[in-house]
Amino acid sequence: MSIRVALKLFVVSAVVFAVAFALRRAFLWDVAPISWEQPPQSLWSLGIAFLLHTIENLAGALAVISLAVAAALALDRRRPAHPPKLRNSE
Fold first, then answer.
1. Which of residues 86 and 25 earns the better pLDDT score?
2. 0.70 cut: is pTM over it?
């Protein structure tokens, strides 16, 4: 995996996270787990809110992992290919 691929994966997962977050906040902002004090909510809205929240969590985790891989690859690229040889001082 190259740094460019890892960064593309980061961007795609960040966009998916932003879209799922915006959809959930725009259309399902008042959906919460049902409690005794609240009136019952429709089952489809709870299911969609749960699905969008799950997509947010997965995309966020994938973004963090891909950014960590890109950082590790960038640090590995800075390391010299061959360590300097030490001379024997005999």
1. 25
2. yes
